[in-house]
Design brief:
Ig_E-set; 157 residues; 9 strands; 10% helix; mainly beta; globular; single chain; 2 helices; ML_dom; 4-stranded antiparallel beta sheet
């Protein structure tokens, strides 16, 4: 019985969703999200970026509090290698963040103070491995104002 329970725990361990400590964006401004969770990534510290294999999928859940009503949400994800912006952007289908809200929430968003869950699932593709990149994920409202923006690091292997 104990061996079976240990095997079950060992099987479930790789899919744990752990909270990250997001940092403020450097290039973009905006409030931090209330909480960021990434499947398989430990809480972020400058010494320990999330390790992501090329070809894997990164599944993030981001909670934010609605500061003002909006009819739309646009997602942007910028990546940097030092000061160099890597020429990459989210696929067109993922830029409409209203499509990735969770819990039956849909746009327009009208309830100020409402806590909203946003889910971003992205595939890791890179021409090289063994580098640590900085990423800034931002959602903007229908007026182009930041709903949230946070910075995190990942090491591509």
């Amino acid at each position: 019985m104990v061996a079976r329970n240990f095997l079950l725990l060992a099987t479930l361990a790789p899919v744990l969703v752990l909270g990250l400590n997001p940092s403020p964006c450097i290039r973009n401004s905006g409030p931090l999200p209330a909480e960021v969770r990434v499947v398989g990534c430990p809480p972020s510290t400058p010494q320990e970026p999330c390790i992501v294999p090329i070809g894997s999928t990164v599944d993030s859940e981001i909670d934010f509090v609605l500061q003002r009503p909006t009819t739309s949400l646009r997602a942007t994800l910028e990546m940097f290698l030092g000061d160099f912006r890597i020429p990459w952007s989210l696929p067109e289908a993922q830029q409409d963040a209203c499509q990735d809200l969770m819990g039956g929430v849909t746009c327009p968003l009208t309830t100020v103070g409402q806590r909203i869950k946003y889910n971003l699932v992205t595939e890791v593709s890179a021409p090289f491995a063994g580098v640590t990149v900085d990423m800034e994920l931002m959602l903007t409202d229908d007026q182009g104002q930041s709903v949230f923006c946070y910075r995190s690091q990942a090491t591509v292997v």
